[in-house]
Amino acid sequence: MIPIKINLGAYKELLGIKKAQDSRIPETIKKLLNNPLLTEEKKEAILAKYRSTGDVFPFLRYFLNSFLLSASAATVSMLLAVFGAYSLSRLRFRGRVIIQRGVLFVYMVGGVLLMVPLYQMSVKVGLAKSVWGSLLSLLLIYIIQTLPVSLYMLGNYFRTIPYSFEEAAAMDGYSRIQAILVIIMPLSVPMLITVFVYCFIIAWNEYLFASVFLKQFHDFQTLPLALQSLFVSKNAIWDRIMSASMLTLIPVIVCFMFVMRNLTGGLSEGGVKE
Hints:
Elements: H1 8-14, H2 27-33, H3 40-51, H4 53-56, H5 59-90, H6 96-102, H7 111-124, H8 131-159, H9 164-171, H10 176-187, H11 189-205, H12 208-213, H13 223-232, H14 238-262
Helix pairs in contact: 1-14, 5-8, 5-11, 8-11, 9-10, 11-14, 13-14
């Protein structure tokens, strides 16, 4: 289980710190280079694929694609969930209970069943024709996937905040929106961090929808999709594959450590005497 020797060279190659060495070339390719029928130009072209790690697997590009898409989806989902959860936990209107319980019905239908209809809808409205339209479609799907549980988590947390805080804010002339921004959100920072990390991890690890919407746009693929492409490609080298997999885990590990450090409850307990 514990490796005897850690191959740091593969990590440096992926991060562009150093170029890949000829020793990384598989034995089958080395035998191919011994073919006398190959010209020097063709041999150099074959070697260039293994010396230039960025051409084989541009890890930093895929990392940035995944990070921007995941962070955008998590931010939008969290902001929408703040106002939606507040309305479900504080306001009284017709259909509130039905909406509150119905938002979780999204998880009753598997992603495989939704994949084809959602892609057909994207094609009909013209979003799937361009890379930015496909990214927008994927962003909306990630928001829809994470919003129900975000509403559920934040709604339960908002109910633990005494309503007396908002009454005091209303007496000071604060509107309801101002009370959310000034009172509710600062008191809910631990849960907001938790919701953001939850949404981020779901979008970061998502593969199914990304494989459909971004398959034809190689430069804009996310890390899970790019890792699968690297695994089945002819340029697949095990140390690069495992190094890329370990680097892909780092944001998830950091997010969990951040949540465990900041997830503390009861910030509002003892604020007022009910």
